[in-house]
Specification:
With 423 residues, this protein is mainly α. The protein contains 17 helices and no strands. It has one domain. The protein is globular. The termini are far apart. The relative contact order is 0.12.
């Protein structure tokens, strides 16, 4: 009976491939584990957010978020494309990309450390010791935290989604538990930032060790990987700045407490956005293997399908957001209307699969254009709308920039076909 049910399910998956034009068995096998990992990650983030909402004042949480956002902005000047480069290289058999990638990232992280030290010095001169010490911690830990996490991209390139989901779940859940425990002992943002970095680095190093022991990576290195990583990292500087500039500007213009309100409006939306990562992560190794002209025929319909899925998810979230906030974030019920409107930005996020296809096939021209235009537009929108309209300005800047992103990537992906893009 069990065997018959399994055969029926497999036959159903194969039948559905006529309509989805996708390897559904691969998607279900990998998707189960990635969905499990995302579920654990979402649970960990919401659990931590609930603890932060109920155990520390908004001013402390706002300061904590500002420092982490600042670390994100500073991190934009490192080799941010390394995770993509490692996944792509390993998928093609160049497993030495893990070691060489970590080495290159640490080397290029010196500049990021220098910027962090300069920011710390600025706050020391201005007698803000809390932020000064916090950015000293960023200088000491930010590069190591990121480079120690590359084990996940290596496993993704190996297409071992079960192991990746288990390791990613541990990397999300354990540091969150440690930070929650710290909240019962201190409300000092410097202490919380220290715990954030140290716990994350420690868990990542342990998981990196087990990754190497499990796979015994070969020493093969593609000489094109690091140059390509440098290209996409340079292209991504403005994008990484744009991802975090909203929180920095909210802190600058409105203060720590309003940033806390804005951050809690973002938290559930950011977790739902991770759902898009599941098909994108599953697809990336396959995208590297497929001919680009084939992708231009098949991917648009998949984007449309995912947009429909995200629309349904957004509608459900808007309906249940009031209950979620009253249960988990009772001190921040004022953020409900913000989070409901902000959720509309999720509908168009599946366009990221088109950008992944451009990255997978090293379409440097299209990537340069997108990475130059879109972050500048996003940053400009926040600078223009945030001062006069406050948090509402940040909300509308987010939605508008996502709509522009959808149009730009759609155009570039389509235009590449008419220019005879090659693999």
């Amino acid at each position: 009976m069990l065997r018959r049910s399994k055969d029926t399910f497999l036959a159903l998956l194969r039948w559905s491939e006529m309509y989805t034009k996708t390897d559904m068995l691969y998607m279900v096998q990998g998707g189960f584990w990635l969905t499990l990992a995302k579920g654990v990650g979402m649970f960990s983030s919401l659990l931590l957010a609930a603890a932060l909402a109920n155990l520390i004042p908004p001013e402390v949480f706002g300061t904590y978020k500002f420092v982490l956002a600042g670390a994100g902005v500073i991190g934009a000047f490192a080799l941010t494309g390394m995770s993509t480069g490692i996944t792509q290289a390993v998928a093609r058999g160049y497993e030495g990309a893990l070691r060489s990638g970590i080495s290159a990232y640490m080397k290029w992280g010196v500049g990021m450390t220098g910027i962090s030290l300069a920011v710390a010095l600025y706050y020391f001169v201005n007698h803000n010791n809390t932020l000064a010490i916090s950015f000293l911690l960023v200088a000491a830990c930010n590069t190591l935290l990121t480079s120690s996490s590359f084990f996940s991209q290596f496993i993704s390139g190996k297409k071992d989604f079960k192991t990746q989901s288990i390791f990613d779940s541990i990397a999300d859940f354990v540091p969150a538990l440690i930070l929650i425990a710290a909240l019962f002992l201190t409300q000092n943002p410097v202490h919380l930032i220290l715990v954030y970095f140290v716990s994350g680095i420690a868990i990542n190093l342990i998981l990196h060790y087990f990754t190497v022991q499990k796979y015994h990576p070969n020493n093969s290195v593609d000489p094109e990987t690091i140059p390509f990583v440098k290209h996409i990292s340079f292209m991504g500087i403005l994008g990484k700045v744009g991802e975090n500039i909203d929180k920095v500007l909210v802190f600058h213009y409105l203060g720590a407490a309003p940033l806390a309100l804005y951050a809690f409006a973002q938290t559930p939306v950011a977790q739902l956005k991770l759902l898009v990562d599941i098909p994108v992560k599953l697809a990336f190794p396959k995208l590297s293997e497929r001919n680009f002209s084939e992708l231009q025929k098949s991917l648009p319909r998949k984007v449309v399908f995912l947009v429909g899925v995200m629309l349904a998810i957004v509608v459900c979230y808007i309906l249940f957001a009031p209950l979620l906030f009253k249960l988990l974030f009772p001190a921040y019920v004022g953020a409900i209307v913000y989070t409901q409107i902000l959720a509309l930005s999720l509908v168009l996020t599946p366009v990221s699969i088109l950008s992944s296809a451009l990255v997978a096939h090293m379409k440097k021209k299209e990537l340069y254009i997108s990475q130059a235009i879109l972050p500048i537009v996003r940053i400009a929108l926040f600078i223009l709308l945030l001062p006069p309209f406050g948090i509402w300005g940040a909300i509308w800047a987010t939605i508008t920039s996502q709509a522009i992103t959808f149009v730009v990537f759609g155009y570039l992906f389509w235009q590449a076909k008419h220019e005879g893009a090659t693999v």
